[in-house]
Amino acid sequence: MSHISPEFVPVFGDCIRMVREVLLTNDAQPFLISGSGTLGWDQVAANVIEPGENALVLNTGYFGLETYGANVTQLTAPIGGTVPLPTLTAALQQKKYKLLTFTHVDTSTGVLSPAAQIAQTVRAVSPDTLVVVDAVCSVASEEIRFDEWGLDVVLTASQKGLGTPPGLSVLVASQRAVKAWQRRTVREGSYYASWKKWLPIMKAYEAGQPAYFATPPVNLIYAFHASLLQITARADPSLPSLTQRLAAHRATSQKIKAAARALGLKQVPLQESEAANGMTALYFPEGVKAADLLPRLGKRGVVVAGGLLGSIKDTYFRIGHMGVTAVDEARGDVDKIIKALEDSLEEIKKEKGGK
After folding, report:
1. Which GO terms label this protein's molecular function in UniProt (predicted)?
2. 31 and 127 fall within a common domain
3. Which residues of the chain have pLDDT under 50?
4. pTM check: above 0.90
């Protein structure tokens, strides 16, 4: 299928419109570009902020902002925690920031940041500061109300809660963020990530006209379209609504976390209210290592990820439970995960002599 095929053009346009539905926005501008979620950060750094401008980063790494010449201030939370709102307020009062960024769900720790409260704080203390959210691990598994919360950029990728193979960068920019780009005094710092190149492409496809800058990933767009039809319930009105899907993610999360507690496992997030609904990060029991547990889970058909955060990466593991795993209870994925975890830990306990 060609990217200028009459059959493909409306599919691309529908994807743009349905992304707005998922993020609950009326007029923000989606950018669907071939690339990983990291390309979203390149777009932010190349288009939204200019060299020498200030950026405030909460909790996690700051990706390419310094590479593109931004002055970055980082507020670091304790492992498993979030930056306290009074600390954020104090930082915003000290100087003017062009933008603030935070990770909605930190995939390395399973920590869920309070997105609505962060945005509310920024709007109250520094209303001109743009709010940029890394939502790679949260879109379609956590509540995101783009317009209501006053967000300016949400960047994500196709492969997690959106239920599509990896390879598609998904970014949504508010009209405020687009105007900030239009007021730039320095040209964009990237060729491929330039909104000057991509904005006309997105507008053309949404209007039903093919356009070209770089060839879109046609097969991936079709897969994304199929997934969005499910998430928005356009494919079948009997499917769960977005509200129901998010409730299913919360229920799945609670079930897995309760089972983990019953097994004596401790979460990485310090507060239950700051634990993600699409994943769970758990410390290994005393005396158990990744090499003990992960292969056993794998033999039982459950693949989990090891730790990712440098200072504690060998002490914990991560379970993903988003998308169909959470929404389609009939699949039995959640029960399979819990049973595999129970049986694997029992096997390890016996092998180590019950210690």
Report:
1. alanine-glyoxylate transaminase activity; L-serine-pyruvate transaminase activity
2. yes
3. 61-64
4. yes
